Amino acid sequence: MNCNQTVICGKLVDIGGLRYTPAGVAVADLRISHVSRQIEAGKPRQVECEIPAVALAQMAETIAGITPGTMVKLAGFLAKKSRMSLQLVLHVNKIDFI
Question: Which of 2, 54, 60, 70 could covalently link to 28 via disulfide, CB atoms 3.0 to 4.6 Å apart?
Answer without folding.
Answer: 60
